[in-house]
Amino acid sequence: MRPSKTIMIVATALSLGACSTVDRLNAVGQAPALTPIIDPRDRNGDRVVTMPMPHPEAVSRQPNSLWAAGARSFFKDQRATKIGDIVTVMIDISDKAEVSNKTSRSRKSGETADITNLLGLEGAAAGQLLPDGFDPSAALGVSSDSSTDGQGSVNRKEKVELTVAAVVTQVLPNGNLVLEGHQEVRINFELRDLSVSGIVRPEDISAVNEVKHTQMAEARISYGGRGMITDVQQPRYGQQVVDILFPF
């Protein structure tokens, strides 16, 4: 990056920070101002929302019939069945796991062998090979001793209760529905992020168009957040790099 470009970026950041500081100083002793009523479309830049939609179906009309094909009322099932339909996913995770293992093993063995007679050559061989003397009764000895002691324990407890609306993004050939749901809630400078996805059977969806997370196959549930508090709780990037590269 060129020095001139870097200076411009730093100057812009400082000017924006100064403006924010001045605004906060001007608001000392005053209640936060309310947002004026505006067109909701202007709040997000009037962006067009696109979602998965079912294939268009030809509507057949009967002149003498009081019922319109494709109408979602009266005796028609209101549960999600097609691409683009919305279904409520009930997440109630209450898991607890306690595992404790202990392993202990000990083994000890010993072998001893001696040479009492070696065709009368044990003395001559000892004199040539071992000038300091040779004891045939201690010719060979082998011993081993090993022990293993291991302990491990796991104690986990998790509880999550959430509700999120998901959209049917795909209908599989066997009729099962693929769901994708995402929800964000911002409080001050902290953003709570929830996402869920999985596969459900249409018959597992209740009459009020709800399905439990335990009835979802290949369920992927993510609950977290990002913001100032999350940044403080996470180690700095340099520390994370050191933790990965440092071998000790």
Overall description:
This protein is α+β, with helices and mostly antiparallel strands. Among the domains are: about 40-50 and about 75-95 and about 155-235, no CATH class; about 110-145, no CATH class. Helices cover about 20% and strands about 40% of the residues. It has five helices and six strands. The chain has a six-stranded mixed sheet. The longest helix is centred in the first third of the chain and has 24 residues, at about 5-25. The protein is flat and about 120 Å long. It starts with a helix and ends with a helix. The mean pLDDT is about 75.
Order of the strands making up the biggest sheet: 5-1-2-3-4-6
The total count of helices amounts to 5
Strand content: 35-45%
Task: Indicate the structural class.
Answer: alpha+beta
How confident is the prediction overall: mean pLDDT? 77
Which stretches of 5+ consecutive residues score pLDDT under 50?
A: none
Tell how many strands the DSSP assignment holds. Answer: 6
Sketch the topology as an H/E string, one letter per element.
HHEHEEEEEHH
